[in-house]
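I hope you will forgive my troubling you with a question about protein structure. I set the record out below, with my sincere thanks for your time.
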Amino acid sequence: MNFTVCFSRLGRKDKPFYRVIVKPLRNLPTLYTLDRLGFYDLSVERNVGFVYRLFVLNEKRFLFWLYRGARTSSSLKKLFLDFNDDIVNNE
């Protein structure tokens, strides 16, 4: 069976909150999740003009699913590489 690692949108209007999940590759609703790997919170404080981004990922479980043949969505792959690039450039 093939798996995909992707985002599941939560939150309310204009305040998105994404959960990183593993689900079967078939087009099933996100109700059928196999594992929750983390979350991505993008909060915009409009009064201050401050953008707050928080990306938390359980890397052991992420690698476990990748070794089992899971595919990642393009948006998750781009975000993961972007955050790893930020970490490397800040050190």
